C-alpha cells in the first residue's frame, strides 16, 4: 500500500508506523506550548482529500529522500508546494526529545519567515506517514550536492547562510533552540542557490537560566557530534557549533566522512591534514579537487581563515565561538572576497 493511502480503520492504524491519535492537532498545541510558550502561530491542517486533489494524486515523483515536489495544482492559493513525508521516525520517541511531526511543525511555524528556513503552509496527518506542506513559490529545490557545487564562493555562501539559520535558532527566542541535526542531507537550495535549513524535529530548547540540557538519547550521526553529546548526552549551543565546524570542513575538502564509527571514541580525532597544510602553500592538497579554482594568494588566505574557523568550532583552537560570531566572520570573509 502506498504511503499516500488513507487509513481505513483504527485496527489498521494500530499496525501502522504512526499512531494516529498521537499526531492529532492537540499534539501540535502541546509542542507549541513547550517550544514557544504557547505563542500563537498560523498552522493550517489539510485533509488527505485536499492534498490528493492539489497534487492530482501524483505521489510517485520522488525528487530526493522523503520529499516530493509538486508543480501542478493549487492548495490554499499556493500553486507550487513541497510535501515532506515524515517517514522512518520512531512512533514512541523519548519524552525529553519529542521528535517527529508535532515539534517540526511547531518550530517551522516560528521560523517560517526567515529566508534560510522553508516557509510552512500547514500539515496533514491523515496519511500513513504524516505530511508537512511547505510553500514552493516558483522555486525549484534540491539537496546540497558537493559534486555539483564547484564554486568555492558558492560553498562559502552556503556556509554563511546555514550559520545564519543556526544563529537565529540560538538567539531569536526566549529559550535557545539547538538544532542538533547538522548534515548535508538537511540543507535544501532554491533555484537561486539560497540555503534552507530543514527538518527541525530534533530541535531541543535550553531551559531558562540553563546553558545545556541532558537527554536520554543522543543519536547516531557521530560525524557531527561532539564528545559531550556522544558520551554524556549533553546538548548545548556548542553542539550545533561543533556540527557546523565539521560541515565547514566537508565544504572545503569534499570529504563525505571525517570521523568514522571506528574512531568516534577518540577525542576530536580528525584527519591529520587539518592544520599541517597551512602556511606552507599546500592548501591545494586538501581542497576538494572538484572545485574549479586557481589558488591565488587572496583566495588561499580566505580558505585558511575558513579552516581555522572550523577548527575553532570543533574546539581545536582555543575558546569555542558562539554561532552568531561564526556567522559574522563568514559574512566578513564573503565581503572580503568580493
Automatic annotation (TrEMBL):
PROSITE patterns: PROTEIN_KINASE_DOM. Residues 64-338 form the Protein kinase domain. The keyword Cell membrane does not apply. Keywords: ATP-binding, Nucleotide-binding. It holds the Pfam family PK_Tyr_Ser-Thr. The keyword ATP-binding applies. SUPFAM superfamilies: Protein kinase-like (PK-like). It comes from the Eukaryota. InterPro entries: Kinase-like_dom_sf, Prot_kinase_dom, Ser-Thr/Tyr_kinase_cat_dom, WAK-like. This is Protein kinase domain-containing protein. The lineage of its organism: Eukaryota, Viridiplantae, Streptophyta, Embryophyta, Tracheophyta.
Amino acid at each position: 500500500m502506498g504511503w499516500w493511502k488513507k487509513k481505513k480503520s483504527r485496527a489498521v492504524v494500530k499496525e501502522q508506523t504512526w499512531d494516529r491519535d498521537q499526531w492529532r492537532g492537540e499534539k501540535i498545541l502541546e509542542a507549541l506550548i513547550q517550544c514557544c510558550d504557547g505563542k500563537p502561530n498560523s498552522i493550517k491542517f489539510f485533509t488527505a482529500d485536499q492534498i490528493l486533489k492539489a497534487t492530482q494524486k501524483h505521489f510517485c515523483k520522488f525528487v530526493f529522500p522523503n520529499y516530493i515536489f509538486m508543480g501542478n495544482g493549487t492548495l490554499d492559493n499556493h500553486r507550487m508546494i513541497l510535501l515532506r513525508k515524515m517517514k522512518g521516525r520512531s512512533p514512541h520517541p523519548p519524552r525529553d526529545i519529542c521528535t517527529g511531526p508535532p515539534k517540526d511543525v511547531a518550530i517551522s511555524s516560528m521560523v517560517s519567515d526567515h529566508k534560510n528556513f522553508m516557509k510552512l503552509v500547514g500539515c496533514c496527518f491523515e496519511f500513513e506517514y504524516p505530511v508537512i506542506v511547505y510553500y514552493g513559490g516558483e522555486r525549484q529545490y534540491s539537496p546540497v550536492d558537493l559534486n555539483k557545487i564547484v564554486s568555492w564562493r558558492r560553498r562559502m555562501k552556503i556556509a554563511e547562510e546555514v550559520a545564519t539559520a543556526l544563529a537565529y535558532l540560538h538567539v531569536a527566542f526566549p529559550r535557545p533552540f539547538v538544532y542538533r541535526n547538522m548534515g548535508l542531507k538537511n540543507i535544501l537550495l532554491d533555484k537561486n542557490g539560497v540555503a534552507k535549513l530543514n527538518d527541525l524535529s530534533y530541535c531541543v530548547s535550553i531551559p531558562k537560566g540553563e546553558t545545556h540540557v541532558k537527554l536520554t538519547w543522543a543519536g547516531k550521526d557521530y560525524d557531527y557530534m561532539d564528545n559531550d553529546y556522544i558520551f554524556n548526552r549533553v546538548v548545548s549551543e556548542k553542539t550545533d557549533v561543533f556540527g557546523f565546524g565539521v560541515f565547514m570542513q566537508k565544504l572545503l575538502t569534499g570529504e563525505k566522512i571525517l570521523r568514522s564509527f571506528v574512531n568516534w571514541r577518540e577525542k576530536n580525532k580528525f584527519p591529520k591534514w587539518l592544520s599541517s597544510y597551512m602556511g606552507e602553500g599546500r592548501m591545494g592538497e586538501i581542497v576538494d579537487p572538484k572545485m574549479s579554482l586557481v589558488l591565488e594568494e587572496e583566495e588561499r588566505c580566505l580558505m585558511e581563515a575558513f579552516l581555522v574557523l572550523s577548527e575553532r568550532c570543533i574546539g581545536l583552537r582555543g575558546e569555542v565561538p558562539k554561532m552568531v560570531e561564526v556567522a559574522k566572520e563568514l559574512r566578513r570573509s564573503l565581503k572580503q572576497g568580493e
